[in-house]
Each structure stands twice: as structure tokens, then as C-alpha cells.
């Protein structure tokens, strides 16, 4: 069952507009072989379990069947990147809406409230996202997908790191998995980055530390260092020790990380339920500029009958409910 979701509201106007139910999950009708997606263009995996690069395929031209396959494929691979995309603001929004409902944002720009500017140059004091995180995990319905179109990149540097949270969970010892399975933690961001009319400025939610992916059924570490404040039912000392352990586990897990090198007109799509990411600001005073939209996800839940990525890929996922994508 899904954990209790608690939201601190600041006005009645927020109550009238705040979503109270999870949106539909995209990817449940995918072809397990992803053959419809693979029928166009070329692709190569960046590592055996994380990341895939596509070329010679335009996102704006995908069919509905290919979109369904793509959603499930991203959920298995964590992050995919499409090179040489011709994607206007309008087309990026339209593409994102095919994956699900878009989250409106307080820092939006352009002609749509879901478009988020990503810009760093010689005048910037910092670059956002320089710690490991998943986007907006403190919200009641954390994003399923983030879609980042990079328009301008430095000659070198400016990469994004991604960490596979399926593999991070798999690497835990059985005893440590039992410590976290079924536990919930409070996530909080005092100033919401969503539009004020859509969500309260002080958002507090209870989410599972280990969540089950609604498409793959694989278990995921879902603690987010910038926003996860404490584990429910534990003392402050106990909670801090365990959350610090998870943060170090993710940060030092080079064997389940990739470093994505950007090219101008590339689009990266990642599953915030399955990966965490970190920006690398090593290119000052040069410019890096793009735009992002995020797709609203489901209420995080933990299913004790869920499987793991390693078990599924080895053919050992014994629960038919969570083995659908790997029956071929």
C-alpha cells in the first residue's frame, strides 16, 4: 500500500488546486521487446544496466506505440539521451505531455508554465543540482520523468552524473535491505519550486525509503539527501546515521553511475523514480543553457512482493505480477 501523504497547506486557494490523486502510469502497455521503439534509428547502451544513447530518431515524430515503449524503456534503463534533436519549446511541451501530465513550475519561462530554464554563464554564482538528488522528491507526486533539452554547451565539461537506484538497492546487504524495507521518511522543502497556485510553499510528505517502481516492479532507494529530513519512528541520531550512510552509498557507488556528456541539441530523459543525478559545474566562465519539463508521477509506494533489477535481468523474478517486461 502507498504510504500516507501529508501536505502542509498555506491557503484555501491551494486546497482547491492541489492534485489529490496519482495520474495514470505511462509504460504499462509497452511491448516487452521494445521492438516498436527500436524500429527507428540506432541505439547503444552506455553501461550494461544504466543509460542508452539514440541517434537518427526524432522525438517529435514518435508514434503512440513508440511513446509507450519509450516510457517503459526509460524505466528499465534509468536515463536515455537522444542526439541531434530539432525540438522547439512548443514541441518539447507537446512531447512531454505525451508521456503524462506536466508539472507547472514557479521559475517557468516562455509560453508554457511547465518550461524550466537551465542556464549558467560567467555571471552565475552557482549551478543548481550540484549534489545527488532526484527532482522534486518532496512533492506528494514526485516526477516520473524529467526531459532536458540542451541548446548550448561548453566546449568541454558540463556533464551530468546519473546513479542507478535499482543497482544501489541491489548492492545493499540483505540485512541492510531489511532495515530500510517498509520504512518511511519525511521529505521537505521550505520554499517550493512549483507554482504557488499549484502547491503550498511549505510542502511536507512521507515517502517510503525503498519504493517499488510501478512499471518494472523493481525496488529503488528513494532517499534524497537535499530533502529527506528524518526516518519516521527513529531517534534523530539513528535516523541521521542511516541517511548519511545512504548518501555516502550513492555518492561513492561509481560502479552504478554514468557520466553523460552533452552535445548541443541533445535531449536527456531520465526516470526520477529510478535514478538520481548531479550537475558538474567545471566549465566556468563558459555558458551552458537549456530547458526542461517534468512529468508528474505516481504516489510512491513499497510493495514487499517487488523484485530487483538484478533478479529480473537474470530471469529470477519469481512474481508474475512484476515479471511482465522480462518474459521474452
Automatic annotation (TrEMBL):
Cross-referenced InterPro entries: AtsK-like, TauD-like_sf, TauD/TfdA-like
Gene3D superfamilies for this protein: Clavaminate synthase-like (3.60.130.10)
Keywords annotated in UniProt: Dioxygenase, Iron, Metal-binding, Oxidoreductase
Ranges of residues in domain TauD/TfdA-like: 43-293
GO molecular function: 2-oxoglutarate-dependent dioxygenase activity; metal ion binding
Pfam family, one: TauD
Domain of life, source organism: Eukaryota
Cofactor: Fe(2+)
Cellular component annotations (GO), alphabetically ordered: cytoplasm
Recorded family membership: Belongs to the TfdA dioxygenase family.
PANTHER family hit by this protein: ALPHA-KETOGLUTARATE-DEPENDENT SULFONATE DIOXYGENASE, TAUD_TFDA-LIKE DOMAIN-CONTAINING PROTEIN
Protein name: TauD/TfdA-like domain-containing protein
Organism the protein comes from: Scytalidium lignicola
Taxon lineage: Eukaryota, Fungi, Dikarya, Ascomycota, Pezizomycotina
Amino acid at each position: 500500500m502507498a504510504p500516507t501523504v501529508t501536505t502542509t497547506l498555506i491557503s484555501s486557494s491551494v486546497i482547491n488546486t492541489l492534485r489529490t490523486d496519482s495520474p495514470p502510469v505511462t509504460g504499462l502497455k509497452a511491448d516487452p521487446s521494445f521492438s516498436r521503439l527500436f524500429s527507428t534509428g540506432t541505439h547503444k547502451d552506455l553501461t550494461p544496466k544504466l543509460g542508452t544513447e539514440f541517434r537518427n530518431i526524432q522525438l517529435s515524430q514518435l508514434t503512440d506505440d513508440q511513446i509507450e515503449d519509450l516510457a517503459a524503456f526509460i524505466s528499465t534503463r534509468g536515463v536515455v539521451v537522444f542526439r541531434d534533436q530539432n525540438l522547439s519549446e512548443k514541441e518539447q511541451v507537446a512531447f512531454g505531455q505525451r508521456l503524462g501530465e506536466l508539472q507547472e513550475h514557479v521559475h517557468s519561462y516562455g509560453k508554457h508554465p511547465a518550461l524550466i530554464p537551465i542556464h549558467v554563464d560567467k555571471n552565475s554564482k552557482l549551478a543548481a543540482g550540484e549534489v545527488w538528488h532526484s527532482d522534486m522528491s518532496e512533492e506528494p507526486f514526485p516526477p516520473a520523468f524529467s526531459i532536458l533539452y540542451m541548446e548550448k554547451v561548453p566546449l568541454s565539461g558540463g556533464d551530468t552524473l546519473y546513479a542507478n537506484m535499482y543497482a544501489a538497492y541491489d548492492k545493499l546487504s540483505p540485512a541492510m535491505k531489511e532495515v530500510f524495507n517498509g520504512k518511511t521518511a519525511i521529505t521537505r522543502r521550505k520554499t517550493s519550486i512549483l507554482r504557488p497556485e499549484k502547491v503550498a510553499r511549505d510542502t511536507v510528505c512521507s515517502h517510503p525509503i525503498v519504493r517499488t517502481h510501478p512499471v518494472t516492479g523493481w525496488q529503488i532507494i528513494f532517499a534524497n539527501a537535499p530533502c529527506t529530513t528524518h526516518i519516521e519512528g527513529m531517534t534523530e541520531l539513528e535516523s541521521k546515521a542511516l541517511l548519511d550512510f545512504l548518501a555516502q552509498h550513492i555518492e561513492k557507488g561509481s560502479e552504478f553511475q554514468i557520466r553523460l556528456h552533452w552535445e548541443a541539441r541533445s535531449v536527456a530523459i531520465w526516470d526520477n523514480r529510478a535514478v538520481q543525478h548531479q550537475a558538474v559545474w567545471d566549465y566556468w566562465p563558459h555558458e551552458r543553457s537549456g530547458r526542461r519539463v517534468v512529468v508528474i508521477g505516481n504516489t510512491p509506494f513499497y510493495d514487499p512482493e517487488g523484485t530487483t533489477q538484478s533478479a529480473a535481468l537474470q530471469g529470477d523474478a519469481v512474481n508474475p505480477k512484476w515479471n511482465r517486461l522480462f518474459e521474452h
